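User: I'm curious whether this sequence folds into something compact or stays loose and floppy. Could you predict its structure so I can see for myself?
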Amino acid sequence: MEYFSTILVFITVFLLNTAVSESTCGFKACPSTKQNMINVHLVPHSHDDVGWLKTVDQYYYGSQNKIQHAGVQYILDTVVEELLKDSNRRFIQVETFFFSKWYDEQTETVQRLVKKLVAEGRLEFTGGAWSMNDEATVHYQSVIDQFNLGLKYLKDIFGDCGRPTVGWQIDPFGHSREMASVFAQMGYNGEFFARMDYVDKKKRLEDKEMEMVWQSSEYLKSSNIFTGMLYNHYSAPPGFCFDINCEDAPIIDGESYDNNVDKRVSDFIDYVKTMSKSYRSTHIMVPMGDDFQYEDAAVNFKNMDKLIKYVNDRQSFGSQVNVFYSTPSCYLYELHQLQQTWPNKTEDFFPYSSDSHSYWTGYFTSRPTQKRFHRDGNHFFQTVKQLSVLANLTSSQHSEDLENLSQAMGIMQHHDAVTGTEKQAVARDYDRMLYKAITGAENNARDALRSLTNLTSGEFQTCLELNISVCAITQSTANNVIVTLMNPLAHTSTQYVRVPAMNENYIVTDEKGREVPSEVIPVPWEVLALEHRSNGTQHELVFKASVEKIANFLIRVLPSPKIAEENVYFPVEKAQDETEELTMENSLVKITFDTTTGGLKTIQMNGLTENVQQSFGIYKGYRGNNGESNNRSSGAYIFRPDGEIQVLDDKIQLSFYNGTRVKEVHQHVNEWISQVVRIYDEENRVEFEWMVGPIPADDEVGKEIITRFTSNIASKGKYYTDSNGREMLERERNQREHFNPDMSESISGNYYPVTGQISLQDDEKRITLLNDRAQGGTSLKDGELELMLHRRLLNDDAFGVGEALNETQYGIGLIARGKISLILTEAFEKPNHAERLLQHKLDQHFWKFFSKSNAVASVNKHLIPDFTDLPQSIELLSFEPYTKDQILIRVENMKTEGNVVSFNIYPLFESLSGDQIWETTLDGNMQLSTVKRYKFNQDSTGSIPSSIEYYYAPHNPLAANSTMDASEFVVTLVPMQIRTFIIQQK
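Assistant: Here's the prediction. I'll summarize afterward.
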């Protein structure tokens, strides 16, 4: 195929006669419609996965077509060529990653033509993030970041016309309320998607409730957003796929014996009439595309041109169907003009079930180590962004390294990346890409810390294997090692730090030479036994650190242990005795274990005592594998257990390490499950560090491994899970908001995504679990909380990935390790912001950097802004370079109750050499003062709007400059509000 074969003709015509003229994008570019007709908005699109069955590069370049025929560069080549041929044609581009890769390769002439298409609304960006992110397993911080990345790229090239106004989340496997809230806070007019529970969809089709107004936040005013569900997935109508990958008949006109115009037109009109019965307005939207279509766009557009012509010709014979090229934003514009009301929606669209035996709840946990790596990537990204601002890193290499990490994290948000629903080879490529980006950005961190401290030649190494107590720089000795701690939080934080070390006598000192109490804790033998783990360090040095933004601690080895303190530095294993209880306690927490079983028995915390038993269990995978609904097996997407859980009830072996500041019980559950239960002095939580794997598969049965906490709390069928790490949603066992679900699969049908927190309570007590990565969770009985930790499956679930989720490493099943924190508190009516603050602290704990030095290290504090004016409930969500002389700051009020919180941002503005400051939408790329977002009214309001309504900025946006009085810099946040600012430096 010859691409751009005729484009020179159009280049000549366009460039001789017109320049990129005044923009006519937006609703001004929308096609005209007709009254008293069914107006059919045809939306040409291609859904281009940023990795799935092939890697991102294989999809872009069109290699490995034996796996899947797809080449995104050719799609964009031919789409642009075809759009230039006819000004009526339209196309929407969604994934900014693929577009940027293609656009950056084009000649200046082609780029100019593309700008003209965008300015005239013929090529329209929809969605606009770096990738089409998942909505179950992503963290809201990463979602915001990848929209910032994609939208900034589009703004820098195309200006206002490049900014999408509609979300296009057509392929994620269920939809979160927080994602809808993100769209509302970015000023989007609405969003569309294609997947919801099949029972829910059937009911909505019957009741004309496929489109709705979604209240996306319990706390934020103006959070309602129009949400539409596509009729036929995101595919063209059956029989009307005109792509080269399809086998549907083209439209044959003229004198041909095979002329099929009448039949094709009649079939299409019949489809439109049937479809319109499920929608409330005289407008319907019909996507024309599917996965990786339009590689030869001439075929698609030529047939759509004919379809439009011949369908509209029928109007002269009385047809009331009017069809034209359009976009989702034009469709939404027409709906907004109608001034009618719409159904209301308040909760989310989880879990998603595509049939009676297919709840897509397995991917909440699939590839748990990759999900953790994704969270580590976000943690390091926030750290490096902050360091880049503090040290004013502006070189092209620094910008490139930070941009590479930003792009890698954007790709990781994709709905076949963080979900774990990609092929194994693709998963490895994602890991390779993120690892390469992290190691590149380590250079930024090193250069920044050399500037921000007196360690001008410090190594500032990052250790990515601390979860198995390995760090290269301490492998032979931790003597004369400086640990530099970076605190990404807004406020001074006190945390315990663990450093892989030899079993030696250490002294830890701070920057003023003061001794910091420390102790040495043995690493569990199960970790030491990991194959391919270097066992130079079999202990961890633990000390407590308080850090404002950056602090250094020097570790030295003393020549010999102090006899009197031997038990402090070398806690001795206490053998399990014959008493029935083992007690572990500190000033805030007391835990007892039943020594007859080795399991957890009671927890005392916050003045409360509760019987809490922890168990591990196995769901054995259903063994069917022919792809039929009633014979489908658990796989990368779905969770379908074969019967009830098998609870592991073998006696657990215990070892007790009774340290001074940290106390640990090491539990050996069986040959492939072990755990450390620990409490830290003055920390009001219990930490469970689990290790699972290799999951045995000798019996040729797939297995899903869970942990369950059982209490006497009378939760009455209700429990609570977070939405992408932010607002909490109430769940009720076997119930949904809008419909009666098919509970043929009653276990997996009660699983929900848990990004950061799952809780239950009664009138008196509340138990909360905080996790370190996205997992599936549930409460199948009152008083129980359950999290899925790991999965190893031997069959594919027949939803496209084409291989079993059977992860291996070093020739054996993959081993995963992670942490859960448990909190026991009094019950409360509204979610407690203290839980969110702790969750944020656990997510954004100190990042550790290691250097070899025997000198006292100090921080150049005059280079670090003062964040002390921020109230305790205000957290720093983003602090990053926006351009070479602009800084983006994003702050969030973690409170879920109470009055507004205010602070003055002037001291921070001044310390950053600010000249101007202005407020933007959540993503950071549009001034908040310019927001004018469609308002749609809900049925529940009881009244039809008398005029077209809009949402504007929810408050008076901050805009100030250095000549103004400090009183003009006050920032006020209501509970759960996020505000975003750009500071222009002098």
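Summary: The chain has a mean pLDDT of 94. Residues 424-452 form the longest helix (29 residues).
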